Amino acid sequence: MTDTPHTAPTRAEDTSLTAFFKDMSVKEKRTFWGCWAGWSLDGMDFMIYPLVLGTLITLWDVDRGTAGIVTTLTILTSSVGGWVGGYFADRIGRVRMLKLTILWFSFFSVLCAFANDFTELAIYRALLGFGFGAEWSAGAILVGETVKAKYRGRAVGSVQSGWAVGWGLAVIAQAAVYSLAEPEMAWRIMFVLGGLPALLVFYLRRYVEEPEVSVKAMQAPGERASIFEIFKGGYLKTTVLACIMTSGATGGYYAINTWLPTYLNTQRGLSVVASTGYLVFLIIGAFLGFIFGAWFADRFGRRKLFLFFSVSAAILVVMYIQLPLSNSVMFFLGLPMGFFSTGHFSGMGPILTELYPTRLRGSGQGFTYNFGRGLGAFIPAFVGYLSLYLPLGDAMSVFAVISYGVFFVAALMLPETKGKELTVD
To answer: Considering the entire predicted model, what is its pTM?
Structure first.
């Protein structure tokens, strides 16, 4: 069972963003939309906490460092969930694992609404993280194995754009809920809305099938791969570099987006409702970044995407937070910052799918991406504690720039995988 290089694309090949969708069968389109919806709702669930964070700090008199730890715990458990979930996706199938994980994180999101204190909420969010991490592993592998190699960057990257949609849904829900209910009740309603992803399971059960390459790998004779095989032989270097790369990419993202709503409220003097427009403009930029990154990854390669976006993101973060900008200028600058702080994630799914053979893909992709999320998970807490001594914006900038620098160096050292076919022989 090996992955062999794909031949170079012909000149007549359609390089447009939507080429992959036009060339898809009905089965492939159903899989694409199922994974896109799952990632959208996953993003909505995750972003609910940063949006209600300011309310919780006020209601329960929690310091920023402690509040940041909850995000850290959620992402740490997601790293374990992603690895284990990816391993079991190799054993029981991508689709079955996707359904189980969606039910898991939906259930614990609803439980968060009934938390009686901050400790109880932290426990529920930590448990939610296991499903949150495993969902990404199963969904990214599923769509990556379903589409053709020449379209993989665009297809998997377009699925990643669902995160921005889910983020937008959470922001819109926040504006509506906080306009209709007092903060003491509004934050609970927000977590109840996090149970909506469970409805997606009905669609997955009816319309989404296991990829052929995955079925063949599970049916192939011979001993099953160990969960630790990705740390042996020639895979060890790949695993280490991929972990460093994802750590830098996610660390930069979390440094900004976990604390941005609080930054807008406390340092820019914007109310929850007033800051909604700023966040929506940022999210529009993120959506466009995901879409552009998806096209860029197939057109120019995964590595060039990472190098270009890591440098650009670091520059935009410094401009957005450190320059003495008026609120109106900051509003419009949010679009390019959202664009460059998220677009590189469009290449993560494709490159991690292509770095490992089919029998190890769940374990390898699940571990490396979610290890990065786990290590990056410490960044929100570090930002929170550093903000006890520096302005919150300065703390955000320091850790974002360091993270994007790490991302850049690791991306330079990884091989280019554009165009690799996924086969079982």
So the answer is: 0.74
